[in-house]
Design brief:
Blueprint (H helix, E strand, L loop, with lengths): L2 H16 L3 H13 L1 H23 L2 H7 L1 H27 L1
Helix pairs in contact: 2-3, 4-5
């Protein structure tokens, strides 16, 4: 991948990150309700997650998943199990 193409990809990804959406609203709500420290931690987490997704995309993981339906279904199930585990963990913590 040429540097110009990579730079264009980074610029487009950055522009998409700045468009108000769920993550921007999440960070904004944390800033207003919990303060600067929590908002900075949330923004850092969002930026790290987006960096990981961008890196995976640059490493052609998206094309690999697109080419393999079984891999795509497997990744969806792994994500679903992880979200269920997080939900159970949250419910158990709130009960205690």
């Amino acid at each position: 991948m040429s540097f110009d193409l990579w730079l264009t990809f980074v610029a487009a990804s950055t522009a998409l990150l700045l468009i108000p959406g769920p993550t921007v609203l999440l960070v904004l709500s944390y800033a207003l309700s919990k303060g600067r420290g929590v908002a900075l931690a949330s923004a850092s987490g969002v930026a790290l997650g987006d960096l990981m997704a961008m890196t995976a995309s640059l490493l052609s993981l998206g094309a690999l998943v697109l080419a393999s339906a079984a891999l795509f279904v497997g990744l969806k199930w792994i994500g679903a199990v992880y979200l269920i585990w997080l939900g159970i963990k949250l419910i158990r913590r709130s009960a205690a």
